Amino acid sequence: MTEQVQPVHRRYGPSAQWLHINEAHITEEAVADLAGFKSNGVNFKLALWNPQPNGVRYLKALTFALGMQLSPANRERLRRTRNREVGDPYSVRCNGEPVCLDYLQAVHEVEFMAANLPLDGARIVEIGAGYGRTCHTLLSNHEVAGYTIVDLPNTLALSHRYLRTVLEPEQFAKIRFVSIDEVDEQVRGARFDLCVNVDSFAEMDPDTVRDYLALIDATCAHFYVNNPVGKYLDKMLDGHSQGTGVVELALNSGLLRDVIDIHDSEAVLEKVPAFVSAYRPGERWQCVARERAVSWSYYWQALYRADPVPR
After folding, report:
1. Comparing C-alpha atoms, which of 294, 266, 159, 275 is closest to residue 225?
2. pTM of this prediction?
3. What is the pLDDT of residues 35-88, one digit of tens each?
């Protein structure tokens, strides 16, 4: 049997862990050149965790930081939105409440909308609801009159199943689920106080977005939008893990397709006027509020109000 050699104890010497780090990562060769050291294995042992295998760690750190900054009003919005743990999200606990990034964003969205128009009694249509987190948060915090969701069939099936599970029966009964093939029949003749679009117009064909904006112009009194101001092509962010074909699809979707540095605040701010203009549904619409959205650097939110149609 080979006898394991124990490291010689030195009064101020490194631990066994740091002996390994010095041998494997912070080697003489690695520290001889400053080029790139803050984004490689040297700094991943000094100051940062490697973001590639530590993505969940960073997601939870972001969620925790934002969760601890919630205002008392948004903590109450979150608390009233029950059953948020359905689906096993990546969650942290802040002040006794489980918090995930999806619902952190949702309470901020509802806060922005509620500050700019009355939501109690409102008739709402949401285009592209995902699994339904914004709808869930709105119905849990306001006595809306009705909520229509327009979406693709598979996503519509998911939001139907999810919302039926997390909402009370009387809340779920307020929702109407409309497939994209039923829009002209079931939506065009209706009237809504508010249309909501969160993070889906940027993923549609440009002509489809224009068709929806025309529909909003014809049927709605207010429009809330929360979407990116542009595109990114920084391979460092995701390694283009889904392939170049998927990257090309993303770059060619939406109305705002300029590629920018999404982590340059000035570059993002420069694109805001184009964002506000692109999502204005028509000539009679005015942008009454706009600001950066939580939590992504290049997302903006805006609320538009339509002037009454002259009789």
Report:
1. 275
2. 0.89
3. 988 888 888 887 878 888 899 999 999 999 999 999 999 999 999 999 999 999
260-274: per-residue pLDDT in tens? 999 999 999 999 999
Strands (E), the chain: 91-94, 97-100, 123-127, 146-151, 175-179, 194-198, 222-228, 285-292, 299-306
pLDDT of 1 above 60? no
The tally of CA atoms less than 13 A away on the side-chain side of residue 217 is 14
Q: What are the beta bridge partners of residue 222?
A: 305
Write the CB contacts of 291 (distance below 8 Å, at least 6 apart in sequence). Answer: 112, 300, 301
CA–CA dist 166, 164 (Å, integer): 6
- In contact, 22 and 46? CB cutoff 8 Å: no
- Enumerate helices (H) and strands (E) in the chain, giving the number of each: 13, 9
